[in-house]
Structures are given as structure tokens and as C-alpha cells.
Amino acid sequence: MVWRQARDLHRALSGQVLTRTDFRVPALATVDLAGERVVETVARGKHLLTRIGDDRTLHTHLKMEGVWQVLPSGSRWRRPAHQARVVLATERTEAVGFSLGVVDLLPRDREHEAVGHLGPDLLGTDWDEAEAVRRLSAAPERSTYAALLDQTNLAGIGNVYAVELCFLAGVRPDRPIADVKDLTRLVRRARQLLEANRERVEMVTTGEVRRGRRTWVYRQRACLRCGTPVEIGRLGPEGRERTAYWCPSCQHVE
Tell me: the pLDDT tens digits for 118-174? Predict the structure, then answer.
């Protein structure tokens, strides 16, 4: 989704001069970038970087509920106005960021402060498979699920992908990543899944696009491969637990 959002913002705004901006966050409430030209928007993991003018970057993060909508100028917004956090308008287009989890305006040479901690980007031009494997291997006792979600290991994996990758590796999500027999293969699969889904609205990990058959275990009552009832648990750091799913038959390690 983040890759698609970056693509849509890039197509709509790049090369265009801003005629109006509205930052509805306290720290940026008085900022006005009207008259500045948008250079580009790129995705870095789950972060969006919209480069404006000669030296500024708008850094946004969707978190769980955020979304950017790109509309023809004057169109009615498809979400309530009180959810809007950023408005970037040109003569022909209006891009509105709703419920964004992060909104920062940075000097261009300080982008690293926002995204420098991230691991190799699965959809990035600088993707480094060996480095991703090295980072995942650095803490062999960590759960596979937590290691995959950690953006400092590799950037771009969300909850659905983490759950489904654990299934494809045949490992319960709460088992140590040392239990994964071939980390290189797992990392390669992660990239393949993100590549295959980057243009899709609905994530598909099974190869089937029919409703109810798009994932192996995520939000399934029974494993799509063997039919065993799927087990559900809350995993992750205290206070930030997320719902994980697994098949006790297919994801069994001796």
C-alpha cells in the first residue's frame, strides 16, 4: 500500500507548483509552501518522503489508519475534514493526507533522521538481500514474527506478510528465527510477495485472488492448505501486540 501511495503522489504532484498547503498539526500550523515545486515522492519501507523545493522533505507515515487521497481540484473529500492532517494543492490536483500517524517537515539533508534506521527496503532500488539475512540472523533467539516485523531488519513487512511468511517457512510465529531452515529463501519470498502485490489493493499470498482464498492462515478459520483449524494469538512487545495466525499442523517444528 505504501508503495502505491508513493506512486500516486509522485504521478499527481511531481513537477507541479503548490498553490495551497495546509498542515493541520500544531508544529507545522503556520507553514506555507505555496509557490514551491514538488520534486518527487518516494517510499522508504513504510515511510513516505515528498521532496519539495530545493531543500525540504515532507515525511509522513500512515501507521494503521492513515491514507493519502489524490483528487481533482475542487472535488469533495472522501473522508471527514477533521481527519485531514495535510493538504497539498496544485492548479489541477489536491492531495489530502488523512489520519496520518507521522507528519514532519525536514531539511532534505536530514532525511536520515527519519529513515536512516531502516534495514534494506524490499521494494527499494538499493535492496540488499545478504544484508537483510545478516540482520535477521543477528538475534537468533528472537521470534520469527517479531524479527520480520522489525523494520530495522528489512523494511516493508506488515502484519499480514509477517503471518503469511511464517506459514510459508513452516514455522510458528512465536518460534525463534533460528528455527527457519533457509533464511535466504524466506527473505527472497518476502520480496517476491511485495513485488507481486505492489499494484494490488488486496494482498494475495496464495496466488488466488478469489475472496476467502487470498491468504493461507491470516484471518482464516482453517488452513487453506490442510484444513486444520487456525490458531490465533496476540504477539509482540507489551502494549503493541498484534494478532497472529498459524496452522498447528503445517507450522510444526520438531
Answer: 999 999 888 999 999 999 999 999 999 999 999 999 999 999 999 999 999 999 999
C-alpha span between 86 and 64 (Å, rounded)? 17
Cell digits of residue 193: 510477495
Distance CA 13, CA 41 (A): 8
What H or E segment, with its residue span, contains residue 60?
A: strand 56-61
Beta 231-235 vs 93-98: how paired, if at all? unpaired
Q: What is the pTM of this model?
A: 0.86
Candidates 60, 28, 24; CA nearest to 42 is: 60
| List of domains in the chain | 2-115 (3.20.190.10), 129-246 (1.10.8.50)
C-alpha to C-alpha distances, 11 to 15, 41, 42, 93, nearest whole angstrom:
9, 9, 11, 11
Cell numbers representing residue 152 in the block: 530495522
